[in-house]
Structure formats: C-alpha cells, structure tokens
Amino acid sequence: MKICLLASIATLGVLLSPTTAATQTGDAAAGKDVFRKCMACHRIGPDAKNAVGPVMNDVIGRQAGTIPGFGYSELNQSAGKAGLVWTEELIFDYLADPSAFLKKFLTEKGQADKATGATRMVFKLADETDRRNVIAYIKQFSPEAKK
Ligand code: HEC
Q: What pTM was estimated for this model as a whole?
C-alpha cells in the first residue's frame, strides 16, 4: 500500500515537473501584474534603467550577467561565463530559487568551485502560474526570444 502511494506521488511529480509546466505558455497580461513584485528591483520597457537589479529588456536569449552597466555578483557572472544563456524554461526554474539554480548550473558544468556565495537576487517566486505569466510578459521585451 505504502509503495503504491509512493509510486503515485512519483508519477504526479513527473507530471508536475517544472519543465513540463514551463512549456505551457503564460498569459502576458496577467504577467504584467506579477511583474509589479519584480519592480521592487527591476525596470522594463523603452525608458527602463538598471536599478537594484538589472533592466529586464532583452534578457531572454542573452548570456546571464551581461546587461550593460549592471554590477553583478560573482555567482551570476560565473554562471554566464560557464554558458548560461537565459531561455524561458531556464528562467522558470531560476525564479523558484535563484541562488540554488545558479549553483546547480555551475556544478553541472563541472565548476563546483565557483558555486559559492549567493546571488543578490534574493526574491523567490514559488507559484508556477505566476512564473509562467511573468515570463510571457518579459518575453515581449526580449526581441531575440520572438525569433
Ligand atoms: C529584491 C530585489 C529583486 C526582486 C524583487 C527581483 N529581482 Fe531579479 N534580480 C535582482 C538582482 C539584484 C539581480 C542581479 C543578481 C546578481 O548580480 O547576483 C537580479 C537578477 C535577475 C535575473 C538575471 C539577470 C541576468 O542578466 O542574468 C533575472 C532573469 C531576474 N532577476 C528576474 C526577476 C523577476 C522576473 C522578478 C520578479 C518575479 C525578479 N527578478 C525580482 C533583484 C531582484
């Protein structure tokens, strides 16, 4: 009985895995509301400038840690140098726990020595629908992502 229950939980886990969820398209209009939370630190749009966090224009399709004029943490820069290029799916995973995501990425690239410290992006977004929607919103300001 116990084993059967564990098996069903495992199956459910597969069905609800972040990768599966990220492939569903979000609602950009709803994402605009979610982005209010990001606006504590990020700006987006034609007149946007770097603030506490880097500007969110042109992020999807870009190497991590390379928005011009922003002073990134070592961890964020290292992940970019190790080959992290933001896709919708990767941002989906990142938003759930930014520091953990960057450390995992570096470790998987064989650079566990650089997987130290923390990102200054201290914000986490747990809700999957919110994550999908906010990414759909950000995508509108990432011309590379639309190609
Ligand atoms: C408390 C401030 C804060 C909030 C709120 C915040 N961020 Fe950030 N974010 C940052 C900072 C600071 C960085 C740069 C991190 C570093 O250098 O380690 C960052 C980095 C990022 C990056 C990586 C950028 C790059 O060029 O590699 C993405 C993507 C991102 N944030 C998305 C979001 C989204 C989407 C939200 C809202 C759901 C959000 N952030 C909310 C502060 C914040």
A: 0.87
- Which amino acid is present at 36? R
Ligand 1 geometric centre to CA of 92 (Å): 12
- 3 pLDDT tier (thresholds 50, 70, 90): low
The yes-or-no verdict on residue 62 having pLDDT over 50 is: yes
Determine the distance separating the centroid of ligand 1 and the alpha carbon of 67, expressed in angstroms: 11
Closest residue by Cα to atom 2, ligand 1, is: 41
3-state DSSP call for residue 85?
Answer: strand
Q: What is the mean pLDDT of residues 130-136?
A: 98
Domain range for residue 74?
2-146
**Cα–Cα distance, 145 to 127 (Å, whole number):** 23
Structural domains counted in the chain: 1
**119 ligand 1 Cβ < 6 A:** yes
